Structures are given as structure tokens and as C-alpha cells.
């Protein structure tokens, strides 16, 4: 089984955004040292607790400070940008670090205000054209526009190798689009646990092989989960408390704020959050996986086996960076 890391550049209490970004670089170096397959960085706008808002910038920093690990976006919000510009940016990254760059593309709303702030044309309401955008992105990467298309006269000039394109999502649309275009697919299991099996199965069942540079001939699925390892289950529950608190706040309409340290989060929650382990064969992923290395790695192996994937991507959102580093080391024991 391969393990990979999705890093959000979460701020520790009383730390700076610079500290969070430097921690992401160190985490990537440790992931490389421990044998993780790839490390991706996310795009979150307008958040106090997360510094990861410009993956195309952070990817360059991570790749410059590592040697072999694949580096990419998880994801760049294609619905907010020009497909041409996204293709050029990631082709440039791949020219700088050939054979190591992943273009993880997805879509998401950033809220009514920031959706408008990200728009060039603000005379009309924001509306995503996801199908045409992902199709256009594939065409730019492959220089495969029809001869009578205006864009066919202006190909992207780049190296022979291309960044590896992955379509990310947690809905039926992303599965359907990835299958129709013959793309690699990453499902966000930490967002949508209930439909994980059905959506990944739909991707495989409806997959159409692609012979283009951006696609693949056989379905390739990665499942992303939220997982934390510690020396004891109690410590894992303690480290998971801040993200439990974040989701509780979200359910109460508290959209953003700084994330506290583990002890303050436990206090705010009124005690350690509960852990529900993955039950082999159930295909129902827990929202949070935590515990000792033995327990977590067994659950990850069961999930990988049940979902028929050979790669899991780990998110953690820990607000204690020392605990994050230790968790990565313990998680690496699951890599085979």
C-alpha cells in the first residue's frame, strides 16, 4: 500500500503563517524520508487557521526542498480560474521539477463574497462550467483541440513529459467526469463518508480508457482519509480534538476562526472526542481515524483492501506540529 500526504498548512496556536508554511516544507521532507509516495497542498481562501491558499506557489517551495517525492495540488480550484492559465502554471512547475508534479484539479465554492472576489467579470452571478473547464484543461495539456478550434493555433509549449492530472472530488459529478475523460480520480473520503464506495465504484464501472497524455488506460483511484497516529489511543483522541471542535463550530454557523491547541479543544468539547474504528468489510469510513500505529495501520490496510485501492492519502489538520511529525513516522509503518 502507498501512503501520501495532503497538507493544509494548519497554524499552531501563537504561531505565524510563515511558521505554518515552513512546517509544510518540513513535513514534505519527512514524508519523503519516511517513504510517502506524494505530498499535496490545498487551496483554502479567507481562513485564519489555514495558510495553504496558493498551491502553485507552495508546490514550488516543497519541490525545491525535496528530491524525489511527487508534489502537487489537492486541489487547485479549476472553477475559479482559466484552464489555460492552470495548464501553463503546472507545465512550468513540471519544467522546473520534471516528472515530479501532480496537477490535482477540483472545484469548490469559497462563499458568496470570495467567489465574487475571485471573478474577473463581476457583472453576473458566479456560475461554474465544470464539464467544459475540465475538458478544456485536458485539451491544453494534450494540445488536442480540434483543427477548427481557435485554441488549436496556440499550443502550450512545454517539455515532452506533462504534470500528472488527477480529478478530485467528493460528489458523483467528479466521478462521472473522471470516468468519461479517462482521468485519474481522488475521492475525498474525509468529506463524504456515506457515498465513498458507490462513487468510487461508479468511476470504475463507467471508466473510458484514454490514450492521451493527461489520461490513463485503466482506472486509477486514490482514497483520501483523515488519520492521526499517536503512542496511545488517548493521545490520538487528544490530538484530534481541534478538528472535532472545528466541525462542531461549522455546524453552528461559525465558519472560521483560529484552531486551538489540543488541550484547549478538549476543554471546549467537554472531554476527549470519541473514536469509531473502521469495521472491515463495512465500506463506511469513519470521519476521523485515530489511535496507535498498530490500530490505525490495520484500519488503513482494511480500507485499502475493501475499496480496492493501492494508495491512501492522509489528511490530519493537527495543531501540534511535533505531534504531526510523530504521526507521520508512525503512519509510515503501514507503507508496503
Characterise this structure:
- With 336 residues, the protein is α/β, with parallel strands linked by helices.
- The chain has a single domain, classed as Luciferase-like domain (TIM Barrel), CATH 3.20.20.
- Helix content is 40%, strand content 15%.
- It has helices spanning 17-34, 55-64, 83-96, 112-117, 130-142, 172-181, 196-205, 233-251, 262-269, 293-306, 321-331, and strands at residues 2-7, 38-41, 70-73, 76-77, 101-106, 164-169, 184-188, 221-229, 289-291, 311-315.
- It has an eight-stranded parallel barrel, surrounded by eight helices.
- The longest helix is centred in the last third of the chain and has 19 residues, at 233-251.
- The chain is globular.
Sum up the structure in keywords.
40% helix, single chain, alpha/beta, globular, 10 strands, 336 residues, eight-stranded parallel beta barrel, TIM Barrel
Give the low-pLDDT segments: none
Number of helices: 11
Average residue-wise pLDDT: 95
The helicity comes to 25-40%
Layout of helices and strands, plus pairs?
Blueprint: E1 2-7, H1 17-34, E2 38-41, H2 55-64, E3 70-73, E4 76-77, H3 83-96, E5 101-106, H4 112-117, H5 130-142, E6 164-169, H6 172-181, E7 184-188, H7 196-205, E8 221-229, H8 233-251, H9 262-269, E9 289-291, H10 293-306, E10 311-315, H11 321-331
Parallel strand pairs: 1-2, 1-10, 2-3, 3-5, 4-5, 5-6, 6-7, 7-8, 8-9, 8-10
Amino acid at each position: 500500500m502507498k501512503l501520501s500526504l495532503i497538507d493544509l498548512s494548519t497554524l499552531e496556536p501563537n504561531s505565524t503563517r510563515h511558521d505554518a508554511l515552513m512546517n509544510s516544507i518540513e513535513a514534505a521532507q519527512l514524508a519523503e524520508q519516511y517513504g510517502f509516495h506524494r505530498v499535496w497542498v490545498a487551496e483554502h481562501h479567507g481562513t485564519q487557521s489555514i495558510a495553504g491558499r496558493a498551491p502553485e506557489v507552495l508546490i514550488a517551495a516543497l519541490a525545491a526542498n525535496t528530491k524525489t517525492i511527487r508534489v502537487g495540488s489537492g486541489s487547485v480550484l479549476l472553477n475559479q480560474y482559466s484552464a489555460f492559465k492552470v495548464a501553463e502554471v503546472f507545465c512550468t512547475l513540471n519544467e522546473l521539477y520534471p516528472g515530479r508534479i501532480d496537477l490535482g484539479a477540483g472545484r469548490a465554492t469559497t462563499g458568496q463574497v470570495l467567489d465574487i472576489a475571485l471573478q474577473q467579470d463581476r457583472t453576473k452571478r458566479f456560475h461554474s462550467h465544470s464539464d467544459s473547464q475540465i475538458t478544456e484543461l485536458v485539451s491544453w495539456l494534450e494540445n488536442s483541440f480540434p483543427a477548427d478550434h481557435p485554441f488549436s493555433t496556440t499550443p502550450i509549449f512545454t517539455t515532452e513529459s506533462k504534470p500528472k492530472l488527477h480529478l478530485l472530488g467528493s460528489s458523483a459529478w467528479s466521478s462521472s467526469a473522471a470516468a468519461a475523460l479517462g482521468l485519474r480520480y481522488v475521492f475525498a473520503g474525509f468529506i463524504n463518508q456515506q457515498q465513498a464506495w458507490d462513487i468510487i465504484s461508479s468511476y470504475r464501472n463507467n471508466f473510458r480508457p484514454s490514450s492521451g497524455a493527461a489520461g490513463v488506460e485503466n482506472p486509477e483511484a486514490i482514497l483520501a482519509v483523515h488519520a492521526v497516529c499517536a503512542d496511545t489511543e488517548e493521545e490520538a483522541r487528544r490530538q484530534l480534538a481541534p478538528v472535532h471542535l472545528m466541525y462542531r463550530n461549522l455546524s453552528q454557523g461559525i465558519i472560521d476562526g483560529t484552531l486551538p491547541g489540543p488541550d484547549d479543544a478538549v476543554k471546549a468539547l467537554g472531554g476527549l472526542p470519541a473514536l469509531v474504528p473502521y469495521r472491515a468489510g463495512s465500506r463506511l469510513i469513519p470521519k476521523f481515524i485515530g489511535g496507535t500505529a498498530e490500530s490505525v495501520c490495520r484500519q488503513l490496510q482494511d480500507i485499502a483492501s475493501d475499496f480496492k485501492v493501492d494508495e491512501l492519502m492522509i489528511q490530519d489538520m493537527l495543531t501540534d506540529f511535533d505531534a504531526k511529525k510523530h504521526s507521520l513516522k508512525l503512519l509510515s509503518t503501514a507503507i508496503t
